[in-house]
Amino acid sequence: MKKNVICLLALSLTLNGYAQKKRKPAPAKPTVDQQMEQAKTAITEYRFSEAVDLLEEVETTLTKKKLSTAEVEDLMDKAEFGLRMLRGTDQIQVVDTFVVDKANFLQAYKLSEETGKLDYFAKFFNIQGEGTVFQNELGNRVYFGKSVGEVRKIFSSDLLAGNQWGEAQELSGIGDDHTSEDYPFVTSDGSTLYFASKGADNGLGGYDIYVTRIGNASSRYLRPENLGMPYNSPYNDYMYVVDELHNLGWFASDRFQPEGKVCLYVFIPNESRNPFDLDEDEAELVRHGALLDQIKTTQTDAQALKIARNELQEAIAYKPKEKKVKDFELVIDDTRTYTTYAEFKNASAKKLCQEWVKKFNELQMLELKLEDNRLQYAEGNKQLAASIQQQETQFESLYNEVHELEKQTRNAEIGK
Question: Are residues 276 and 382 located together in one domain of the fold?
Fold first, then answer.
């Protein structure tokens, strides 16, 4: 009996020793700093739910230690906002992508003439400045970003006689949430504006693309909406354009790009938003559809993709015709319509025409101001009544002066 007890005791000691040898130490719990970095990485990779779980754990730890949770709360807002954006991700088919130098990325946009034109502010106006300019199809209006003090807003300007641009007018209604607006594009009907802005409360980070429309009863724009994913990301996303003739959409982003480079995404625009179904679609499919890091997964309709690629090749191959620049347009008689000063035969008529163009431009600018004041008056600003009345008197007088100068110019040229 004693011998059996000794044997059992020896066996027990042996087993305990073996268990201690096999038992691995528990992994060290990540530090707060490590968890914060993990959450930031998760946000960048659009794993927003994972980021929220990590940040909730960090917040609990910091609260227990009575430490500041401000940074955690900021990241939590970003993760929760990203999660909401992810739920509304628009399913698009990407036709092609082009990685180009950021310094001259506009050259890669191949748009139909019906869409309008893009240019750099400094080049278009031949003055120092940043940002881009969009010129509509008719060529008589441009949109651009312009600094006003410490903020940057979207302005428009109309083409006047003499091939001159009128006084820049800030687009009204966009609001104070956006303090760094640029990269505008306006659809062919003139009612829908896309632009990029950074610093707004409802932004994912860097430049985000927004859309707004003119209200039915006024020239004021409605509150802009974030275009959401996949167009926007935590990086810089901007210069959204829709070419209705070719049924192609374009936008630029520096996501996944090295310094100095930008990727242009060409896609098939949906007639209406077509979000993923989070209950039906796989989570990874939605995540990649928002990130646009696996382009082939977006190409689900072979026939539509084939048509879009043909349209893109046609757009790339198109060579626009040079258009004659008009200084003005003045009917001289039944057979002659002048558009440049060089066409005048009579020196006095040419001088009168220059004065006519100057006054005509003044009349156009006055008409724009009068129209704007009337709209503000209709919206309730009754203090403008006296100013409107004065402008109406000025308009009538200037109109008569312009009409008389036009007649004098015509008569001088034909020798009357």
Answer: no
Report the 10 Å Cβ neighbour count for 415: 8
User: Residue 217 and residue 379: Cα distance in Å, rounded?
Assistant: 9
The per-residue pLDDT for 320 is: 73
Assess whether the previous peptide bond of 30 is cis (omega < 30° from 0).
Answer: no
181 shares its domain with 148 = yes
Q: Give the CA angle between residues 31, 32, 35 to the nearest 5°.
A: 90
Query: pTM, whole model, 2 decimals?
Result: 0.76
Residues paired with residue 268 on neighbouring β-strands, in sequence order: 93
Give the pair of three-digit tokens for residue 224.
């802009």
Cβ atoms of residues 190 and 136 within 8 Å = yes
**Which residues, other chains included, contact 288 with Cβ-Cβ below 8 Å and sequence gap of 6+?**
294, 297
Question: What distances in angstroms separate CA 92 from CA 112, 255, 267, 271, one per listed residue?
Answer: 21, 17, 7, 11
Q: Which domain holds residue 80?
A: 30-87
- Please identify, among 63, 87, 111, the residue that sits at the C-terminal boundary of a domain: 87
pLDDT in tens, 305-353: 999 999 999 999 988 776 667 778 888 888 889 888 888 999 888 888 8
**Percent of all residues in the chain with a pLDDT value above 70, rounded to a whole number:** 92
Token code pair at residue 183: 């990269």
Tokens 């620049």 correspond to what residue? 325
| The token pair that represents 376 in the structure block | 């503000």
Give the helix/strand (H/E) hosting 204: none
Per-residue pLDDT reduced to its tens digit, 157-213: 998 877 789 889 998 878 777 778 999 999 988 889 999 998 777 788 889 999 999
Regarding whether 253 and 129 lie in a shared domain, the answer is yes
